[in-house]
Amino acid sequence: MPVARLSTDLIPAAERFDWWCDLVWQDVARTIITSDHAAEFQAGAETADLGLVKVTAMHFAPIRSLRTRTLIRQSDPEVYELALITGDPMWLSQRRNDTAARAGDLLLWDTSQPFDGGVCGDHAEAIIVHLPRSALSLPPDRIDRLVAQRMPATSGMGAILAAFLTEVLGQAHACRPQDLNTLGTVTLDLASAYLAQRVDAAERLSPETRRQVLTARITAFIDRNLADPDLNPAVIAAQHHMSLRSLHLLFQTSGESVAATIRRRRLERCRRDLADPRLRHRTIGETAARWGYHRPADFSRAFRGAYGVSPSEVRARAWEANDARAPR
């Protein structure tokens, strides 16, 4: 299956820790795993197979994971694991480097070399990108400089990559197989660009990778500025020091114009907020204005054109569903 969800909740308590160890062996690499919480172990994972790469979100009780030369000789997937830490801090030792990474950091390790790592806290969470060594165009000796190094992902390319990984896992289940393959290519390009930037090797990136990275940067800029009613292709082109024609050509390959991208992402945010019961206090007009629609008639027309129903219908259905689920 392209997207799979697994959890210890479905496994007998006495078998949960062994089940998790087997899952890590299959999905990441063979390691010796120990835990002080083996008797009451809880964990879960969601994996999206994107063709060129896999992305896995994991949450688990504290463990220690040791990969030895013997295990590497037995089996080596030959991948770099790039993890976005989203829970308690994690520590890692590899290639004489030692580090502790916290939520919002990226952490890299190599399955072809011994490592030792674990969790500094009560609950680990991470989104891991499995990057085949053969798919990366960067020199291995440069990538090796980054293993077991704390790499903040709160700004620039790191923030773009982190946001993209989170979005991929949230939307992969709704994608067609060909869309998942496209997402895999974009994931590989963004991860490659991030690593290249860290080791001053941007010149080794292919033209296609550079195009994907530029598109991701522009899309992130659009998302940050959706509330601005004056956001338009000319503003975006000027912000990124490119001609309007170049911007339109860049988006032409995606099958969606710049203006259509702005409109779609605005409407997606509006629909999400209208369906959120925590935002009941916000009127439809306020929701529309929050995402750049300051003329109610324009918003209603665009919303119905995109979804076939009015904003008020979407809100009413969401509230009815939420009220039906509420305990009585």
From TrEMBL:
Keywords, comma-separated and alphabetical: DNA-binding, Transcription, Transcription regulation
Domain HTH araC/xylS-type as annotated: residue spans: 216-317
Classification via Gene3D superfamilies: Homeodomain-like
Name of the protein this chain belongs to: Helix-turn-helix domain-containing protein
Top-level taxonomy: Bacteria, Bacillati, Actinomycetota, Actinomycetes, Kitasatosporales
